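Q: Could you fold this chain for me?
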Amino acid sequence: MGQSSSETCGTCHGEGVTGSEQGPLPCLDCAGTGQLPSGLVRTEWRLRELERIHAATSGEAGQDIRWLINEVRRAHHALLQILAVSADGADSQPMLTRIKFLANDVLSVYPAQREG
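A: Sure. Below is the predicted structure, expressed as structure tokens.
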């Protein structure tokens, strides 16, 4: 598994800018780079956006949303720890390879590679 390669931003098509009534503006999805950040960064951005949108939500619904956001963060943290531990093991151990694959499938830290 190597370093993750970036995906081209679908909003700006890799240009880093989008059109508006005020003229070209930096793309909000890729921060003007033309490349999407890693899946972990995109997930965190989305969680922060959900927190912002639902900050004023009160009652049980607000508590449920905050709890769910916290659980997603905890799960991602646990998977990162699992991925790190499995990456430290020998690649010849099939169980560690499978664990690494499963954790990476959720986190998208490393690019998926086809066998063969």
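A (continued): The mean pLDDT is 86.
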